[in-house]
Amino acid sequence: QIAKAAQQRGWHLYVVGGAVRDLLLAPENTVVPLKDIDLVVDSFRSSVVDGAGVVLAQQLQQQYPEAELQVHGEFQTAALIWRARAGHAPLMIDIATARTEFYPYPAANPEVEASSIRQDLYRRDFTINALAIRLTSPQPGLLLDFFGGALDLRRRQVRVLHANSFIEDPTRIFRAVRFAVRLGFTLDAQTERFIRYAIDSGIYADLQAQKERRRLPALQTRLKAELSYIFQADYWAQSLGLLDKLGALSCLHPDLSIDAALWRQMHRVGRWRQRFIDAVGRDMGVAPWLMRLEVLLAKLDARSQIATDLQLPLGSIQRLEHLGSTEATLLAQLQPKQLPSDIYQTLETYDIPTLLLASVRYPKRIGTYVWQYATRLIHIKSPIDGYHLKRLGYAPGPTYRQMLTVLTHAALDGHVVSVDSAEAYLKR
Ligand code: ATP
């Protein structure tokens, strides 16, 4: 439908990017389930040159009113989104107008200018992502491969399109690693040199020193997205290992690298998080990728500043900001041989993700206490409530709270196990 609409206007329409890559990688005669399809329309600088993608998306939406239309004016792109429904997988079709991009300075967001499909493909990250299939005549189905992407798919390598690519956009380093690990590809040797060169040129230091904050948020948004993809994938450890080997973690902070202890903590946090959820029977509201990222940042003094720059959720920023004092308190107060009520009193002021973050980093003792607290102590209540106290003849008032706290602590330590024992305890 959409190719027909483009054809009628004398435009060319192409499928580009990941969809083409995944189609070419799939064994012959298999159905490739595509969730995310990127289209590019080349309108040959006709009168609606700046909005051709938007025009096509609007037309398609009239035929499929159930799809949601989103227009991103700045980059002349439109997206049609079909949400998941019974029997229908979700689908997103992104329609862009062919464009070139130039970068006024490193790490800036692309400036947009309409241009041909070759230029559009040239601005992309890797040859394997810079392939297009034409959907319009002449030759619908024609593969456009200007940069040797098909050969790289056969050679199973990630190769960048130009030498400055990683300096222009350091998030591409994270993308290169993600694609290499996910697809089981290697990094082309020259590409690896470009990565190392970009890192050695001190991207992070440059950005910080220049206080070039105007464009920094856009870069950080992309970086956060890449980190979330990496940390939520099954292969996160392999990607992180490769990023570390390349020195790419210095994009986050110059002192960031991974030692054996940090590896242990990062593996632990995912396992322990899941164990908590299984034991408690409900989610803790912080995704595994975010917990892994928090553990990674936790060892840095600048952790909360980095979390703020990356625009992480407020809870994460605060957890990292207060981590030092949380850990000092836990280490000081959670001494060996603690009564359950003491453990409870120390830990009740923190939420579970905070305790999890602190416990994966510190001696087993803390982890054991936190586990005991979150899975058992937190559920122990006083066997009698305020209503019951009133029936026993105690006058309502602030002392109620104190009495209930005393009873809860007694219940935690096993002195109070029933209503009768609670009443007896109060009389004492
Ligand atoms: P995935 O299967 O992970 O979605 P994808 O290739 O579709 O892979 P997207 O992040 O959806 O990845 O990006 C779509 C396309 O946009 C890519 O194939 C690539 O051509 C281009 N692209 C995305 N990010 C960048 C970037 N930082 N620099 C250059 N090109 C990019």
Describe this structure in words.
The structure is a single chain. The protein has 428 residues and is α+β, with helices and mostly antiparallel strands. The chain contains 22 helices and eleven strands. The chain has helices spanning 2-8, 18-25, 52-63, 117-122, 149-155, 165-168, 171-183, 189-200, 203-210, 216-232, 236-246, 260-280, 288-298, 303-309, 314-321, 323-333, 340-347, 352-361, 364-375, 386-391, 398-412, 419-427; strands at 12-16, 36-42, 68-72, 77-82, 91-97, 99-102, 111-114, 132-134, 143-144, 157-158, 186-187. A seven-stranded mixed β-sheet has the order 3-4-5-2-1-8-9. Strands 6-7 form a two-stranded antiparallel ribbon. A two-stranded parallel ribbon has the order 10-11. Helix 7 (171-183) packs parallel to helix 10 and helix 13 (288-298) packs across helix 18 (352-361). The radius of gyration is 28 Å and the shape is elongated.
How many β-strands, per DSSP? 11
Largest sheet, if any? 7 strands, mixed
Number of discrete helical segments: 22
Kindly state the percentage of residues in helix. Answer: 40-55%
Give the end-to-end Cα distance, rounded to a whole number of Å. Answer: 83 Å
Kindly report the spatial arrangement of strands forming the biggest sheet: 3-4-5-2-1-8-9
Tell me the strand percentage band: 5-15%
**C-alpha Rg, in Å?**
28 Å
Query: What is the average per-residue confidence, as pLDDT, rounded to a whole number?
Result: 86
